[in-house]
Design a protein that fits this description.
It is built from no helices and 16 strands. By secondary structure, it is mainly β. It has a single domain, classed as Jelly Rolls. It starts with a strand and ends with a strand.
């Protein structure tokens, strides 16, 4: 095994360890300035719902993701992700919806950035037997500046048949909001 140690100032040392395999291993550093991303400064979170939430027909509503499974950099609070590291974030959110059988709906999960719709999916369907608890996802790659940008999950639905509300089911498996830093700025 070969080691290369690069000593610096009093902030510490950087050690590169070559794997114990035959052949040549190369690490290339780009000619760019920036922050090296390591597990200690790569924000990631997963949030779920502690209770189900009723969504009124024809109303944009923030989803109450109030239970954190994990939050590696303490950036998720009050249903909002506010990253402190500038970069590109993969944001995903999925909802398990309970709706009335026989009705026609438009379901629209929406990712908001800084209080405005940023990305959405739309699913128009007639709820049939056995379809009353379905999953509806949306995701996108979003740039956040690391200081003032924030991301939230919203849901909109329209009942074409009547004006019925729907319920987002508080399932840790199906109703969740997640995000992770993919690349620094």
């Amino acid at each position: 095994m070969a080691n290369v140690a690069i000593s610096g100032d009093t902030s510490g040392a950087v050690t590169l360890t070559v794997p114990a395999t035959a052949g040549t291993q190369t690490v290339t550093f780009p000619a760019a300035t920036g922050t090296a991303m390591v597990s200690g400064n790569m924000p990631a979170f997963r949030a779920t719902m502690s209770t189900s939430q009723t969504i009124t027909n024809n109303t944009y509503t923030k989803v109450n993701f109030d239970t954190e499974t994990f939050d590696t950099n303490n950036n998720f609070a009050s249903n909002r992700f506010t990253p402190t590291v500038a970069g590109y974030y993969k944001m995903d959110f999925n909802l398990a919806i309970q709706a009335t059988v026989g009705r026609t709906y438009a379901f629209v999960p929406i990712i908001y950035k800084n209080g405005s719709a940023y990305s959405q999916s739309e699913i128009d369907l007639i709820i049939g037997v056995g379809m009353s608890n379905q999953n509806y996802p949306t995701s996108d790659l979003i740039y956040c500046n690391g200081t003032t940008d924030y991301v939230e999950a919203y849901f909109y639905h329209y009942d074409f048949t009547a004006t019925a509300s729907v319920t987002i089911i508080n399932s840790n498996v199906n109703s969740k909001f997640t995000g992770i830093l993919v690349r620094g700025a």
